[in-house]
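DM from R.C. (forwarded with permission)

"hey, sorry to bug you on a friday — could you get me a structure for this? deadline for the figure draft is monday and I only need the backbone to look sensible"
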Amino acid sequence: MNQARARLRAMLAKPGMIVAPFAFDGIQARLAEEAGFEAVYMSGFGTAASRGYPDLGLLTMSEMVANVRAIADCVRVPVICDADTGYGNPVNVWRTIREYEDAGAAALHIEDQVWPKRCGFLAGKQVIAMEDMVAKVRAACDARRDPNLVIIARSDALQPRGWDETERRARAYRAAGADLIFLDGIKRRDELETYAKRLGDLPLLYNGDLLPLDELAKYPFKMTIHIGTMLAAYQAARDTMRELRRSGKIRVTTQSGVFEEFVRTMRVPEYQAREEKYRT
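My reply, with the result:
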C-alpha cells in the first residue's frame, strides 16, 4: 500500500483544508516538506517552465510522468499532480492514470480543455463537451488500482462558458466519480466567493493566492494548491541573476551558511553514512 496516498485519503476525510505549495522539482518539494507542509503540488506550468517551455500543451505525458516520479521519490508527503487533459480520449486517460499511479502520485487532476491546453490563468481557453469529460472522469476512476489514489476533475469552463455551465459540469464530474472538483482561473475575490457559494456542498480544490491561508481556511475548500511559491522562487532567481550581473556580487555566498543548509536538505550526510557502511 502506498502510504502517502493513504495519508492523503485520511486527511481529506477530516475537517480542514490541505495546503500543497507549487513545486516542479525535487529540491522545491523537499523544502516544502521541511517547512512542514503535509502535501506538495507538482505544477504543470512549472514542469513546462523547468524545461524552457510555456504551459501550452507542449510537454508529453511521459515527460510529466518522469517528473512525478522524480518528485515522489524525493519526499514522503503526498504529491498532487497536474495531468493536463489526460493526453487524449478516455482510453488515453486510462493509461495516464496507470502511469501516474506507478510513478507515485497520490492525487492527480485532469481537465476539460481541448488539446493543446493552456495555463488556467491564460485567456483563450476552450473546453470539450461535458459528456466527453464525464467519460474521461469515469475512465480515470476505473483505471486506478489503488483505491486511495485521489481523482480530481478540473473545469476551465468559467472563462468561455460562464457560471451556469461551469456549475453543471462540476456536478456532473462529481457524479461521475471525481473525489474533488477544481475550478481553475479564479482571479478575483468575487469569483472566489461565487465558487464557494455555488459549489460549497461539493469537495472543492482552490488554486490561487487571493487570501492568506488563515482567511482561506474559512471557505469550504478541502485543498488549496498555492501558486505563490512558484512565483516567489522565479522572482528570487531573477533578481539574484540581475544583481550579480549589475554589481558583481550577491548577498548569499558560500560563507553565509546557506551552502551547509543546502547540503543537509539534499541529505548528503545520509548518503555519506551509506557510503561508509559499504566501504571496502
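R.C.: lifesaver. The chain has two domains: 3-236, 250-280.
me: no worries. The beta strands are 18-23, 40-42, 79-82, 107-111, 150-155, 180-183, 204-207, 221-226.
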